[in-house]
Amino acid sequence: MKSYRLEGLDCANCAMKIEKGVQKINGVKEATVNFTSGKLTIDAEEDHLATIEQETKKVVKELEPDVKVTEIDKEKVSEHGNEKERNTLFRILFSLAGIALLLLFDFNEPIRLIGYLLIYLLIGYDVVKKAVMNIVKGKIFDENFLMSVATIGAMLIGEYPEAVAVMLFYQIGEYFQGLAVSHSRKSIRELMAIRPETAHVQTTEGLMTVNPEDVQIGQFVLVKPGERVPLDGTIIEGESLVDTSALTGESVPKSVYVGETVLSGFINKNKPFLVQVEKSYENSTISKLLELVENASSKKAPAENFITKFARYYTPVVVGLAVLLAVLPPLVVSGAAFSEWIYRALTFLVISCPCALVISVPLSFFGGIGGASKIGVLVKGSNYLELLAQTETVVFDKTGTLTKGDFSIQTIDTKIDPKKFMQYIASAEQFSTHPIAQSVLEGYAGPLLPTTNIQEFAGEGILAEVDGKQVLAGNHKLMERFEISFPLSQEIGTLLYLAIDQSYSGYLVIADTLKEDAVDALVQLKQAGVKNTVMLTGDSKKIADHIGKQVGVDKIYSELLPEDKVQRLEEILQRNNKKTAFVGDGINDAPVLARADVGIAMGGLGSDAAIEAADVVIMNDQPSKIAEAIHLAKKTLKIVKQNIVFAIGIKILVLALGAFGFASMGDAVFADVGVTVLAVLNAMRSLHVKKEDE
């Protein structure tokens, strides 16, 4: 098995063609193209790979000459795609300048013809070239053919501005599609940056820095502060705090000691520790997580461009009718001149140019995307707007999505003065780096008492002398260690007990808090047409049930690992006919975000990886924005459907009039431009969705 990068691949249809072409190569067991990451994977015998690689390059060059096949390695990614985008932009700008010049100055023939011909060749040569190459291969009817026939037809009968304008608008649409794909591809690559780069292996000769792939099971790896744990294993020396958010999504660092298992992807926060490796790199947790992301994104069926689907049927019909119109009447009707009917057929082709659709459909979607950005929602592509409009199930992560992800003091229950209670507990915790201690200090603003003889009990709490008194601050284990009787509490969250001079004084509760609009968000989703709401979390059942009931979700799944979340989502997807959205914020949510029909990330406080893996990003972290985005998506889709019906309906009417000679070339162009203007104006309404909602 070997993987290659397809640089310059910017259309889903092209990806499908390449996949089919490579699968036909002799010796290839299976070939898959992941359009999202621009990756081609070939499964074949090792000794045949070199020959297959050469054949693959030939196939790709034949199908898509602009796509470059490169071997995936750790080298810098080629700028091939960026260069292509820059060239297209320069061509668009030069063409616009040329058209403006020709319209401003009324040039006589043949200067006018030469001017428009040069602009046409500049902006449209690649489309015409592709159309010709496809005809040679027997693949006639695609969008390139449609654009070429319609525009060359317009040029032949003297409608130069129409021909150039249509080709120009088409190229602008292609340019924006290319930009969107490049951004998506960059996102996937940035996500892959969470992969550990090095491992410090302890040998008889000292420490050796190697690639994690080269580390053997049973070897000892030193993890320094600030580094990622490179491989799964057990701590045999040292202790520390580790950031587990990459895998669990939980924001509170975890204390780890000798004998405990640590997973690859954990980040060591403060002290070095030695790990005995128990799994090879390819079987490690982080490697599997990244694999999940890639595989999950490939399961998403890439949405075919509407115009390609439309052209598949529309083009052969229109071209066939145009040929019949040019040939049949002169043969059947007496006195009918070939020149007149050829003119009508060319008029028919000019009218057939789907200018209104080419411009208005993407513009409606871009308007919807622009409208979404105004309300703080980033939608990464027009197809996601369509999917949002069809969403009936919304699945939520808990921490950082429905809750704030910041742990603070929720309850104080004490026998003594609360201010005095907080002063003692904050003084005892003042030198601790533990997240719980930090939460206590953040919740106390007063003066601290002199504290000496501090003794920390790992995983339990602190014994200290505060203002001459013996103070115990910790969990129930610490109280039990010093045989202090204390009442059991049913509070939800982390409980921190206080005992002064062996006497129980009270407790405080530190817990994650719900986002202010979390409850409203669930109500609004139901109003927006969402039928099912689900919560998936790695947190304990007790906390998950408590939060789930508070916000009002229909179904709760707790104590899940990242792969469990994907599995649960798969089950939900199989049960539902309609679309399913997943809302998350951590790196651990990335595979689920990628697998869902629509992945929605909390952008303000969420991880970069989750934001990049998602299709929709809520910029201000408010879950209520999801319902607004769904409302907006539905309105945008409604506008798109209106434009399609309107543009095709008028087009068919004018085509009929043109066929019977009731529409001249001028009328045809006017009708075409008029329909386009009206469709564009209608498309612009999608920008004002927010105002309509208000």
From TrEMBL:
Subcellular location(s) of the protein: Cell membrane
Catalytic function, reaction form: Cd(2+)(in) + ATP + H2O = Cd(2+)(out) + ADP + phosphate + H(+)
EC number(s) recorded for this UniProt protein: 7.2.2.21
Keyword set, alphabetical order: ATP-binding, Cadmium, Cell membrane, Hydrolase, Ion transport, Membrane, Metal-binding, Nucleotide-binding, Phosphoprotein, Translocase, Transmembrane, Transmembrane helix, Transport
GO MF term (any one): P-type cadmium transporter activity
Superkingdom of origin organism: Bacteria
Cellular component annotations (GO), alphabetically ordered: plasma membrane
Name recorded for this polypeptide: Cd(2+)-exporting ATPase
Similarity remark: Belongs to the cation transport ATPase (P-type) (TC 3.A.3) family. Type IB subfamily.
Record domain HMA: where: 1-68
Enzyme class per UniProt: translocase
Regions crossing the membrane: 88-105, 111-128, 313-333, 345-366, 644-663
Pfam family, one: Hydrolase
Gene3D superfamilies found in the cross-reference section: 3.30.70.100, Calcium-transporting ATPase, cytoplasmic domain N (3.40.1110.10), Calcium-transporting ATPase, cytoplasmic transduction domain A (2.70.150.10), HAD superfamily/HAD-like (3.40.50.1000)
